[in-house]
Amino acid sequence: MTEKKTRKYAVVDLEATGAHQTASIIQVGIVILENGRVIESYETDVNPHEPLSQHISDLTGITDQQLEKAPDFSQVAAHIFGLISDCVFVAHNVKFDANLLAEHLFLEGYELLTPRVDTVELTQVFYPQFERYSLSSLSEQLELDLSDAHTAIADARATAQLFLKLQDKMARLPKLTLENLLALSDNLLFESHLVIEEAFEAAKPLLEDCFEEVGGIVLRKPKQLLQERRLSADFATNIALLGLDRRKKQEAFASFLEKHIDDGRVSFLEAQAGLGKTFGYLLPLLAQQEGEKQIILSVPTKVLQDQIMANEARKLAQTFHINAHSLKSPRNYLKLDTFYASLKNHEDNRLVNRYKMQLLVWLTETDTGDLDEIQQKQRYAAYFDKLKHDGSLSQTSLFKDVDFWQKSHQRAQQSRLLITNHAYLLTRIEDDQAFVKGKYLVLDEAQKLFLVWEEFTRSQLNMGETLQTISSLLDEDPPILQRRLLESLQFELNHLLEQFHKQVSPQLKANLVQRLRQDVKELDCEQLLDLAKALDERFSLFWFEEDYFEQHRQIYLKSASMDVMDFSAFLPETRKTFLVSATLQMSSQVSLADLLGFKAFTFDSLEKEPSQGQSIWVDQSMPPVDHLDEIEYETQLIQRLSQLYKLHQPTLVLFNSKKTMLAVSDGLDRLHLPHLTQDKNGTAFNVKKRFDREESHFLLGTGSFWEGVDFIQQDKILEVITRLPFDNPEDFMVKKINHFLKKSGKRPFYDYTLPVTILRLKQAIGRTKRRENQKSAVVMLDSRLMKKSYGKIIYKSLSETAHLASQNFDQIMSEIAKFLI
Fold first, then answer.
1. CB burial class (10 A; 0-12, 13-18, 19+) of residue 509?
2. Residue 703 annotated as binding site
3. Which of 28, 7, 5, 176 is nearest to 100 (CA)?
4. Does residue 427 have a known ligand-binding role?
5. Which residues form the Helicase C-terminal domain (predicted)?
6. pLDDT recorded at residue 767
């Protein structure tokens, strides 16, 4: 019996004089693998007979003097060819290394015809939850030894370790998954499929207990519920069991909460950021033994929701075996029926087929089916949009017993701690009053709830999609009366959009709205149901708004009622409701309780203290923003940010406008200053993770970065606030609140607008000072703080938060450099 010949792999990395195919090789690193182990390695410098550029020398650490003593490529070609010619050629970005080496060998009379395997693409398939696939990023995530990056042998050894990890991961996958992957593997670069074939041939046919097969797809079985441990009645003991330090402010906050647990009224708890509020309210509630009531925690954003699941919820599960579950809207979850149909459908798009491979691997790993776990999906968002769950499930579905959306609901009912976000909480309560009834409800960052509540009581319609629907209905050649109504509707909406583009008032007149309503009503068409809802009689205000994206802009029709809706009447009776925030009292005249309609409630406020290790500077040399046009303003920002960039400190830059943020980002690109920008380089969650991993020290953000994302990892951080975060006075929600306050005898600007602006500033400033030994420098590029009458109020309030100074920009640069030493 002859022994089966094993396949050898040559893992190769080259350093060269450039990244082009006419470059000269200056260093070769080769690691030979067989049977899952290193059997040989080889390294050599190569004399290119040309000087290196400064960039290549800086990148690799290789010098001209070093290469002068190295052999010519002709002197090492025979040995290299003999070493790798009977192997599969493996590299991280194999196209570059294999083509360059083959070209050099060919010129010496050797023809390299070995199969090629690309570890970049294999890693993308088999590690679908990673965001970045550079060797340096992977060395961090997979603990590869890359102690001397950008030398050929170090990179080759790290790539060899990566390849062995890939082989090991494939060996642990079910044979059926490998079979499904092989059916799509022709879409991989070169001969990368050979590695999957090898794993398939060696795989055991039977499924392990942790997997189940449905419809030919292998899924991971859900985790069993933990047997929960009882918490101590003493808060300090629970903190110690979690391995955390005692904090006086946190204990004081927890005692406020404990005092009101049995009070039937809604309780408002005000405490500044950075004291550990999450454990401050969760531990006392989890320590309650009364029937082990479920705790529902609602936060403003999905980013914060994921953050709590990854941090506090994980610690609670590890220490006390608390079952926690994160609940989101249906569209966050993969619909298995749709993915199943996609697998059956032959696609010509190589990228789509590679995503199918990623998903097949991911389904053997995910417990939730939450598509947010796939970090690369934004590269082909259209495909993933088709796979999102729509909230419906047929009783005849192959996957009705394993459907992720259904399983999420089941897990939500079984978990002691349920974490969701304000927007989805409101949707669930509207659909199901029992969702919160009789349970503990904590609304964290509660000031944000009012804004989400207001959005919830509005309607928003994508005009591009609506006009596309009308065009499709016209293409179907409808009856003459229906055609005339559709054409009338199409004409009116297009005319309104033209007027909006010409910067005529975005608001729709009442008589026009009535005509649109009448047309939609007579059409009685299911495809126009969203338009009918947007024109509903309960709304009295209708207007257009646009949102900016990197490559396009989108216009929405928005609808709202002029009356402030009563949240207290909407909320079912809970076991107890807590509203928690850094600021709940807008002014002496207006509180969050007033805006939400609560009449009977308790209110406690923890004494605030100025933050140590944080300083704020106001740039008094910045021209007032109301004196600049858009281009001038963006130019001023780019100039200052390019100077702050030179400090080489982790820097968060906050914008009010996505349009301005993207314009400034383009300006930094023109100056060749690498940075991360929300929605341009990924979602808020993704760019935050990349920033934390130090992929760039400069991050531009808006939206949730103002009050939903903490920066705790950085020992020193610089925060730049580009503009005071005032609401747009033309915004219809602002007009609505102003109308409500005037009717109540209040002063809208001083009792609401200005206090809310100060609140946003304080929250933003607090995001970069999350622990005692952290240093945070804040620069405010809005001189209105010094030049407007209301600026004194803001200045005084911020000086209670941290040390505050007003100076010219050059002085600020000098002081920050000293402060962040």
1. exposed
2. no
3. 28
4. no
5. 636-810
6. 81
Verify that 642 and 758 share a domain, yes or no.
yes
pLDDT of residue 168: 95
Whether residues 537 and 619 fall in one domain: no
Residues 14 and 158 in one domain: yes
550 and 635 belong to one structural domain: no
Q: Residue 273 annotated as binding?
A: yes
Q: Which of 519, 541, 560 is the last residue of a domain?
A: 560
Is 275 among the annotated ligand-binding positions? yes
793 closest CA partner among 741, 731, 749, 727: 749
Cβ atoms of residues 665 and 638 within 8 Å:
no
H or E segment and range at residue 90: strand 88-91
Phi, psi of 748 (to 5 degrees): -55, -45
Q: Tell me the per-residue pLDDT of 740-799, one tens digit each, with 9 for 90 and over.
A: 788 888 888 888 788 778 878 887 888 888 777 889 999 999 999 888 888 888 888 888
CA gap 697, 663 in Å, rounded: 19
608 vs 139, 273, 578, 801, CA distance in Å?
43, 10, 20, 8
Burial class of residue 230, CB neighbours in 10 A (0-12, 13-18, 19+): exposed
Give how far Cα 190 sits from Cα of 128, 155, 462, Å.
Answer: 20, 21, 42
Q: Where are the alpha helices (DSSP H) in 608-683?
A: 630-645, 658-670
Residue where the block lists tokens 């009685």: 524
Q: What is the pLDDT of residues 334-384, one digit of tens each?
A: 999 999 999 998 877 888 999 999 999 999 999 999 998 887 765 667 788
Please indicate if the annotation marks 277 as binding a ligand: yes
Residue 291 is assigned to a ligand binding site? no
Residue 45 phi, psi dihedral angles, 5° rounding: -85, 160
- Give the Cα separation of 758 and 721 in Å (integer): 13
CATH of the domain at 115: 3.30.420.10
Per the structure, the complete domain to which residue 138 belongs is given by 8-119+128-171
629 domain-assigned: yes
Amino acid identity of residue 765, one-letter, is I
What is the rounded distance in angstroms from the CA atom of residue 396 to the CA atom of residue 89? 48
Residues 6+ apart with CB under 8 A from 790: 749, 750, 754
**Element containing residue 27 per DSSP (H, E):** strand 25-34
804/714 same-domain check: yes
Residue 3 confidence (pLDDT) above 50: no
DSSP 746-786: --HIIIIIHHHHHHHHHHHHHTT--STT-EEEEEE--THHH
In a domain, 502, yes or no: yes
Give the CATH number for residue 668.
Answer: 3.40.50.300
Q: Residue 443 pairs with which residues in a beta bridge?
A: 298, 579
What secondary structure does DSSP assign to 555-571, as a single string?
EEEEEE-SSPP-HHHHS
Residues 162 and 119 sit within 8 Å (Cβ to Cβ): yes
* Rounded percentage of the chain residues whose pLDDT exceeds 90: 51
141/59 same-domain check: yes
Residue 580, strand partner residues: 269
Answer for the pair 582, 273: CB distance below 8 angstroms, yes or no: yes
Say if residue 648 is in the same domain as residue 742. Answer: yes
Q: Is residue 354 part of a domain?
A: no
Q: What is the mean pLDDT of residues 271-289?
A: 88
pLDDT tens digit sequence for 168-206: 999 999 999 999 999 999 999 899 999 999 999 999 988
Q: Look up residue 398 and give its two tokens.
A: 């192959």
Within-domain flag for 316? no
Sequence-distant contacts of 400-407: CB under 8 A, at least 24 apart: 401/214, 402/212, 402/214, 402/219, 402/336, 403/335, 403/336, 404/333, 404/334, 404/335, 404/336, 404/368, 404/369, 404/370, 405/330, 405/333, 405/335, 405/369, 407/222, 407/369
- Say what percent of the chain tops pLDDT 70: 96
- How many domains in the chain? 3
Fill in the amino acid letter for 610. Answer: P
- Give the pLDDT of residue 551: 64
**Is 278 within any annotated ligand binding site?**
yes
Mean pLDDT of all residues belonging to the chain: 88
Domain co-membership, 534 together with 630: no
